[in-house]
Amino acid sequence: MEKFLDDINILPIAPILDSYAEEKARLVVNGKPMSDFDLFIGCTAAAKKMILVTENVKDFVNIRDLKMENWVDKHNK
At 64, phi and psi to the nearest 5? Predict the structure, then answer.
């Protein structure tokens, strides 16, 4: 188990809270609210300039500055 955990990078959440709150308010005002957990995942990826890999692109498409990749894209098969 220790070997497995050694390879995992845990990101701190405190630095994301401000951008999460701002993005949540922006999406609500624009009539595009989303689930808290998905929003937090998306905001974390955007703030850390990471690429979110998901098949569920439609649920994350409204998050500002979020880069995504769909590795399963069923439409191109």
Answer: -65, 135
